[in-house]
Specification:
This protein is of the alpha/beta class. It folds into two domains: 346 residues, Alkaline Phosphatase, subunit A (3-Layer(aba) Sandwich), CATH 3.40.720.10; 138 residues, no CATH class. Strands 1, 2, 3, 4, 5, 6, 7 and 8 form an eight-stranded mixed β-sheet that branches. A four-stranded antiparallel β-sheet has the order 9-10-11-12, covered by helices on one side. Helix 1 runs parallel beside helix 8 and helix 6 runs parallel beside helix 8. About 5% of the residues have low confidence.
Length: 511
């Protein structure tokens, strides 16, 4: 399939039901003169989409015209960081405005989402917003067993499917069509809050699809921690093609908003939930695991054409949305509203951001995780690995914290040819890691043991501990093993040994 044919199919999927239901929504939107005083919110989040893989960010082999439009007509953020390099804990942080160490079971992957943690969609619903989501909301995990009546992202609108999915691995969900259905259900005069959770570019990818679409191997950038081989470059191109599908579906939603005359009164946020699904990226606290694309547009409220290098944390989204809607963010939210910087063009509220990880997949004996916390300043990244005796990518030889795919296969099968890169991906790591990220995103050279960087390491270590202590993060309070007790509802691997009971608490760590 060539790229033009792929994008034609993507556009057809995004616009396949564009003709029905618009008139009813138009009359609802214009009948009430109060409409417009509170903004609508469209939050679009791709699955495993990392920085800088957008055409406006300089990525030659990927085309993201709709993300680029939001960035041109609003703000492009170059230093946005997720709260965790994994789907469900990061999504819980987005929804609650709290860091993963403050979220109990929701702070680890594929577990529970305790009902006591309020999510911004429900707070907006209480304030009169029409709320919903399509695709992937909060997850993976079990929200029903937490006592919730709906996904924390809101009521689901995922019934409509695309008739002809162009690639193996792309979800059949008609995201744009479901968004239109959501709009037709909106009560008269109500502002809306919608979560578009694209399941792309999460693996698996159709192998070779990037090349078939017309992309070129020489245009695929390979980070220094991966082998520069055609197998890896081709895998990157396949990943890029799925990003383009996500972007095309977003384009369909923007067209609907324009047709309704709603775009100028809608805060549109487009981002990814964590870094790309490659070795040493996703599920890691390095730049390629936590740094993601982010663009925001809000009519004439946000000056267009701005590129901001402010440090943005995903815990800032919830208080920002609530603030913009005139709802006071709950005091327990750790994030800070970005409304002031957005509307004034001033500096962002963060001198640093913190993020972390707990268990990802079932990758180790007894279903334990690889816990870490990190602090990112303007030019330094400090990582604290709390269980440095464990294997960071999972126990050998499965390394299950790395998603299966051609790059993982190539690296493991060619470990003798690339021993240093293989060790970077799966080998044990020191308790402390320090990187100069002003020089490179690759996070190759650990400066933590360098005498000339010792003061910086100690300073950031102390600062991280102080912040985590203020947040009452169990990892700073000496009770962090509680995270290894939390149940996992995803697939389990008994062959790894020890505790492997799906959906159950591990009694050995319930202290």
């Amino acid at each position: 399939m060539n790229r033009r044919h792929f994008l034609e199919k993507a556009t057809c999927g995004a616009l396949g039901v564009a003709g029905w239901g618009l008139a009813g929504s138009q009359s609802s939107a214009t009948a009430n003169p109060e409409q417009g005083r509170r903004p609508n919110i469209l939050f679009a989040i791709a699955d495993d989409w990392g920085w800088p893989h957008a055409s406006i960010a300089g990525a030659k082999a990927v085309r993201t015209p709709n993300f680029d439009r939001i960035a041109r007509e609003g703000v492009l953020f170059t230093h946005a960081f997720c709260a965790a390099p994994q789907c469900s804990p990061n999504r819980a942080a987005i929804l609650t405005g709290r860091h993963i160490g403050q979220l109990e079971e929701a702070g680890t992957h594929s577990s529970l989402f305790p009902d006591k943690f309020k999510a911004y969609p429900s707070l907006l619903a209480e304030a009169g917003y029409h709320v919903g989501f399509t695709g992937k909301g909060w997850g993976p995990g079990e929200w029903k067993r937490s006592g919730r009546s709906e996904n924390p992202a809101g009521p689901e609108y995922s019934r409509l499917k695309v008739a002809d999915v162009p690639l193996d691995g792309i979800a059949p969900t008609d995201y744009s069509g479901n968004f239109e259905t959501f709009l037709t259900k909106r009560p008269e005069g109500a502002p809306f809050c919608f979560w578009y959770g694209g399941q792309e570019p999460h693996r698996k990818y159709e192998k070779g699809s990037g090349l078939k679409s017309g992309k070129k191997l020489e245009d695929a950038p390979v980070p220094a921690f991966l082998p520069d081989d055609a197998a890896v470059r081709g895998d990157m191109l396949d990943y890029f093609l799925e990003i383009e599908w996500f972007d095309a579906q977003l384009g369909g939603m923007l067209k609907k908003l324009e047709a309704l005359g709603e775009l100028e009164n809608t805060i549109v946020v487009v981002t990814g939930d964590n870094g790309m699904s490659f070795p040493r990226a996703k599920a890691n606290l390095y730049e390629y695991g936590v740094r993601v694309p982010l663009a925001l547009r809000w009519g004439d409220r946000v000056k267009p054409g701005r590129t901001a290098d402010d440090l943005i944390s995903f815990v800032d989204f919830a208080p920002t949305f609530l603030d913009a809607a005139g709802v006071t963010p709950p005091a327990e939210m750790s994030g800070k509203s970005l409304l002031g910087m957005l509307t004034s063009g001033g500096a962002g509220p963060n001198e640093y951001v913190v993020f972390g990880r707990e268990r990802h997949s079932h990758a180790r004996k007894d279903n334990v995780g690889y816990p870490g916390r990190a602090i990112r300043t303007r030019d330094r990244l400090f990582i604290q690995n709390y269980k440095a005796d464990r294997w960071p990518a999972g126990d050998p030889e499965e390394y299950c914290d790395i998603d299966d795919g051609p790059s993982k296969t190539f690296l493991t099968e060619n470990r003798d040819k690339y021993p240093e890169l293989f060790a970077m991906a799966v080998g044990k790591r020191p308790e402390a890691e320090l990187f100069d990220v002003s020089q490179s995103m690759d996070c190759i050279k650990n400066l933590a043991d360098s005498p000339e960087h010792r003061d910086m390491r100690d300073k950031l270590s102390a600062q991280l501990t102080a912040v985590l202590t203020e947040q009452k993060d169990p990892r700073a309070l000496g009770t962090g093993d509680i995270f290894d007790s939390y149940p996992r509802f995803g697939a389990m691997r008994p062959k790894l040994g020890g505790f492997a009971k799906q959906g159950a608490y591990n009694p050995d760590y319930q202290k």
